[in-house]
Write a structure and sequence with these properties.
This protein is of the alpha/beta class. The chain has two domains: about 100 residues, no CATH class; about 240 residues, von Willebrand factor, type A domain (Rossmann fold, 3-Layer(aba) Sandwich), CATH 3.40.50. It is built from twelve helices and eleven strands. The strands form three sheets. Strands 5-4-3-6-7-10 form a six-stranded mixed β-sheet, with helices on both faces. Strand 8 and strand 9 form a beta hairpin. Helix 1 runs antiparallel to helix 4 and helix 5 packs antiparallel against helix 6.
Length: about 350
């Protein structure tokens, strides 16, 4: 637990002073108490619990004051609370390398099955958008909370040549920020083919991928949405995904990346040819690190199911710093009310003595 105003904790020194004043008052009452011939008569009249219960209201009052002073110091703690994410975008690799059979029956079918399970486990307050990327990228499903539309979009995936990871990430980002002015046409369909696989220098070509003047925010600070990007190969065309990751980081968007397939690489048949492809874990890890997200590797369909289960839990419950001063203030009010109630009840009625 942390305190936003730690200097206010000095006020807690008043609690021992109150306790000392209470004990001093008790001693004075004992000195001026009337002398009785037999104290056993008084004790019998007061009952066995009267001697200790008179201290309960003052003890509750001291606890209430302590809780109130802690509330003034504005305590905060890291709590697991319902997530505030409202829109997720799932960016799926649909390059022809997804025909590989190292994950039965194929990578594509296994990924589709896992994605459907992910959709079934999403909380109802989360809207999901779906994009696909291969040689270029496209929006398959705009953000929706209709589970049937999500599953239908997953079934519409069509395999294509190429792997434009940066394009997929850029289109996913444009789904989260439809009014941001991303220059998708220039970024995805550059007339110069020599620039497609080269990093884009934003200093030499300003406004190349975005036309807005949004001020950068801390990575991971955007709470209204996130991106989940799944890829099984290396970028072969399109903008550099690390450039797009920095754009996402400037907008506070977390990107969770999933590397699908074997780390050692495998071959995939396509149009009578056999292609060797290998997972680009380094790039996926850097995308997650730049944006404040996390990288996961899934070597089997079962692994991918576990990854999606983990991600679904993250979007349902999120650990974040939360100010809990209101809880201490409520506790102080409750303790003070209880102290006053018990004090009034016990001082107006005493066992064995009837008021006239």
């Amino acid at each position: 637990m942390r305190f936003e105003w730690p200097d206010a904790l000095w006020l807690l020194l008043s609690i021992p002073m109150l306790i000392a004043a209470y004990l001093l008052a008790l001693r004075r009452r004992q000195r001026v108490a009337a002398r009785y011939a037999s104290l056993s008569l008084i004790r019998a009249a007061l009952g066995p619990g009267r001697r200790w219960r008179r201290h309960v209201p003052p003890a509750l009052f001291a606890a209430a004051m302590t809780s109130a002073l802690l509330a003034i110091a504005r305590p905060s703690a890291t709590l697991s609370l319902p997530s505030e994410y409202l829109t997720l975008v799932l960016a799926m690799d649909v390059s022809r390398s997804m025909l590989a059979t190292d994950i039965e029956p194929t990578r594509m079918i296994a990924a589709q099955n896992a994605a459907k399970s992910f959709i079934a486990d999403l909380p109802r307050h989360v809207r999901l958008g779906i994009t696909s990327f291969a040689g270029t990228a496209a929006v398959v499903q705009s953000p929706t909370d209709d589970r049937n539309e999500m599953i239908a979009a997953i079934d519409r995936f069509q395999l294509q040549r190429g792997t434009a990871t940066g394009s997929g990430l850029l289109v996913a980002l444009s789904v989260l920020f439809p009014d941001a002015g991303f220059d998708l046409e220039s970024a995805l369909f550059d007339a110069d083919p020599r620039s497609r696989a080269a990093p884009i220098d934003r200093r030499e070509r300003p406004g190349r991928m975005a036309r807005d003047d949004a001020e950068p925010v801390p990575p991971g600070s955007y709470k209204a949405g996130s991106i989940v990007l799944l890829s099984d190969g290396r970028r072969t065309t399109g903008p550099d995904p690390l450039d797009i990751a920095r754009m996402a980081a400037d907008r506070g968007v977390r990107v969770y990346t999933v590397g699908f397939g074997s780390r050692e690489g495998t071959t995939s048949p396509s149009d009578g040819w056999s292609y060797y492809m290998r997972l680009d874990e380094d790039t996926l890890k850097q995308i997650a690190r730049i944006t404040g997200g996390e990288y996961f590797h899934a070597g089997t369909e079962y692994d991918l199911h576990k990854v999606y289960d983990d991600l679904s839990a993250r979007f349902t419950i999120e650990r974040r710093d939360t100010e809990i001063g209101a809880l201490f203030a409520a506790a102080a009010a409750l303790l003070l009310t209880l102290a006053c109630t018990l004090s009034l009840a016990w001082t107006r009625w005493t066992p064995g003595i009837r008021a006239r």
